[in-house]
Request: fold
Amino acid sequence: MAQLCRTQTIQVVDTEYSADAVEWCPLNGWENILAAGTYQLKKSEAAVGEDGTETDSPHTRVGRVYLYHFSHDQIFTPLTEIQRIESAAVLDMKWCHVNLSEKPVLCIASAKGSLELHHLTGCEKSCALVPLCEVDVGSKRLALSVDWSTGLGSNVQPVQLISSDSKGCLSLVSVSESAASLDILRQWTGHEYEAWIAAFNYWNTNIVYSGGDDCKLKGWDTRSGTDRPSFTSTRHTMGVCSIQSNPHKDGILVTGSYDEHVLLWDTRQMKQPLADTHVEGGVWRLKWHPIHEHVLLAACMHSGFHILDCKEAVAGNAEKCTVLSSYVLHNSLAYGADWSKLSLMDWPVMKQGPRSAFHSESDMENTEQGVKKPETQKQHLKILYESPTASFDVILEDDMGTYIPEDAGAHALENSSKIVSVSIQGNQDCSIPENYFQSDKDGDTSNSKESSLIATCSFYDHVLHVWNWESSTANSSK
Reply:
């Protein structure tokens, strides 16, 4: 079996402020809803003291929360903004994995040191976030991350939040059944410097993990007190800034760091990771695929976004995960990333049938037998649009201007077991070998194709990308 993976930009949105968090709603009936958070440091005007001299006033961290709707009916611009909320800068946001009081609830970790709950009201295409309640995690600090205890998608009781902040503290917070109130159950100092990330073990929510700028990964059992961690790992050599428990498989944890490494762990043995993958960029966020238990999305700052296959590493057969695809369209810092539960296979664009844009195997066979070889067809990369980051999305056309679809290439690796990713990077000449793509022959349907919708955002250039990751598995027995 050979696997061909593709990434393709669907839409680019300018968020005006630097974008650092994106979250698709995971709840049934609300999968089309995307929330995005932004962060902007604004310098206040200089104040004039009593002696007439100007004094520097502190910078203000402002932000905005966007709510978008993704519509299958819109082919060219499927993502539509339906709400924006001015706020303090947003550092992190997460949807609760279950309804609270029969409504989706979003928690926002903000620069004013608070956790804020909002619930969705209205219908899908005209819904809005309405504030419910908030709790301060402490004065003169930033709430840096948040995670829900509901990661398995079941009604775990009690519903709780874990948060980390810029003072190195962790806060365990209880959420009332109606989501009308938040109460801090326990707060403790977990790290010497910023505690960049905190996350639950979804399979045992009494266990939480944290990572800090002190280069330490720690585990905590909240049943036995938080005076000391249950373990401390110094395997990462720089600040630990991303952690996620695998919601599909008990005992699997993934962590990422400024040291540019993604570490895969068996939580039963935290002395040595199962795998160590160098991704060439600081790992700010990690997200497991909502369906495929071994597929991981990583936001890797300077090196863009990468999709990893952890199957062999989890099985103990590999020392690092395989990078299936990379999405590196923008020249900025890759920060927020999330998978949608929506399937794009029913989207009109994805339902286009394969076209014979390249010579099939039968053409080559006829040529070898003396039949006149058809005139060589030329392929051209055409600029589809220019994004705000001066990166280009491209499509492939022939001399007649006919679109060569993503499907053409399902059998490109029939004689190879390698996993190959095709990614187009801006500001570079892109050349594709003529024999790279091959069309399906005689309506053959032996290929298994899947498509995943992804949202990512980048800092500094304030851009939100919505893109498609397509994976095709070709039957190599032909």
